[in-house]
Amino acid sequence: MTHRAELTQGLAAIGLDLSDAQIDLLEGYLGLLAKWNQTYNLTAIRDKDRMVSYHLLDSLTLVPQLAGGTRMLDVGSGGGMPGIPTAIARPDLKVVVLDANHKKTTFLRQAVIELKLDNVEVITERVEAYQPAEKFDRITSRAFSELAEFVKLSRHLLAADGQFVAMKGVYPFEEIAQLPADFAVAEVKKLDVPGLDAEQRHLVRVVAK
């Protein structure tokens, strides 16, 4: 199966209806990720075939869960997941991808330029030091840290009535138990990622009490 066919089938399974132009952008991003990964070690997954499910489709399961939102911060974005695929799927969403690693943000800036993603801003900064002019109504992370650490380090960036939307593997019972006392879990949702049948994925929605 071609990458495009796998992507198209996966999008249908997730329930995302993207245009041919958006699928072109996702394929373009996949190509850049695979190319730069040879030099910059952006992801442990080297096989471009596996990147479709492990990176693109896994990231895109976030999109239906954003429940609106106008400004999203992707903390510890690394190679751009889930921020870049989300920005492609939601061109109306302002997305900031943040990482403290200069090599990774160099790649992210190049990807944003080449793919002409006008709704994406790349920031090289530690999240606890980041002070934007405007806060975010959605803050996400995919492989940044444990839940409590993620909330503690980025709580100053959450807008009133905003949500943390963290992407996790197995159900994170222990991480949830360690959350700061003034935050609560609003929802834990099992995510079905096409092509990752054997692996458990969950989305944890956290809000201020």
Automatic annotation (TrEMBL):
Listed InterPro entries: rRNA_ssu_MeTfrase_G (IPR003682), SAM-dependent_MTases_sf (IPR029063)
Coiled coil: none
Pfam annotation, one family: GidB
GO terms of biological process kind: methylation
Record-stated family: Belongs to the methyltransferase superfamily. RNA methyltransferase RsmG family.
Organism: Vogesella aquatica
Keyword Transferase in annotation: yes
Source organism superkingdom: Bacteria
GO MF entries: methyltransferase activity
Catalytic activity: guanosine(527) in 16S rRNA + S-adenosyl-L-methionine = N(7)-methylguanosine(527) in 16S rRNA + S-adenosyl-L-homocysteine
PANTHER family: S-ADENOSYL-L-METHIONINE-DEPENDENT METHYLTRANSFERASES SUPERFAMILY PROTEIN (PTHR31760)
Database matches in SUPFAM superfamilies: S-adenosyl-L-methionine-dependent methyltransferases
Record-given protein name: Ribosomal RNA small subunit methyltransferase G
Keywords: Cytoplasm, Methyltransferase, rRNA processing, S-adenosyl-L-methionine, Transferase
Localisation: Cytoplasm
Class in the EC hierarchy, top level: transferase
